Amino acid sequence: MRELTFEDVTVRFGSRRRGTVAVDGVNLVVPAGQIVGLVGESGSGKSTLARAAVGLVPLAAGQILLDGRPVAQYKTRPLQMIFQDPYSALDPRMSIGASIAEAMPRGAADRRAEVGRLLELVGLAAERAGARPDELSGGQRQRVALARALAGRPEVIVADEITSALDVSIQGAVLNAVRDLQRQMRLTMLFISHNLAVVRYVSDIVAVMRHGRIVEYGPVEQVLLDPRHEYTRELLDAVPRPGVPLGT
Ligand SMILES: Nc1ncnc2c1ncn2[C@@H]1O[C@H](COP(=O)(O)OP(=O)(O)O)[C@@H](O)[C@H]1O
Ligand SMILES: [Mg+2]
Prior knowledge:
Helix content is about 35%, strand content about 25%. It is an alpha/beta fold. The protein folds into two domains: about 1-80 and about 155-220, P-loop containing nucleotide triphosphate hydrolases (Rossmann fold, 3-Layer(aba) Sandwich); about 95-150, no CATH class. The strands form two sheets. The chain has a six-stranded mixed beta sheet with strand order 6-7-8-3-9-10, with helices on both faces.
């Protein structure tokens, strides 16, 4: 299990004078084997922080560490990112089994059996390995994207709005799969959503982001029962009460 740490991370787009500071001096810890839910309105910098973690955008300042070592120093990336749109992760011409196998480490033995195991792990029948992405529903595709991310044997997963494109009726099932897998594989996870109801459902710790900064961080019950920041209260007011289906 690994701990993911953001230290004074700043990401800027455009020039120093006229650009945007998308992430502004973020300090954030994702403890080993736990899920930190990152919530905040659209444009608050969540995706930029996620992309910085997997090396897709350069840092203007600060560093991102895994167990105290800069992530960039790891030869095989122990970090995997899952995006909102499962289409982008899956090649439409390849069977889903081939897509999953492709993400496995070099030299992995018995890929076929491993593909079946991963499919079953995310709640799909192993026999579906030959299916193409367009034969699956959105929820099934997101499960395949999850299986593909797991195929690389990551220790840390960054999941960005992975249920936001899904029908509300199937979001819960995908979230359950995420939570079960995280527990079983003892993954460290940064789980991002603009929807506090979704974040609340899977997270151990909640971090609230606003205008590029973390304005609130704490155990999920504490943040929900006794938020420190006015902005968190506003987000809470927008969340349906328990028992009401998850919405967006
Ligand atoms: N590639 C980019 N080029 C320029 N500005 C960007 C880019 N990506 C994001 N931004 C800006 O950075 C800010 C944060 O965006 P983003 O990280 O996508 O927020 P969120 O995921 O919370 O909706 C926004 O103002 C957005 O317009
Ligand atoms: Mg985003």
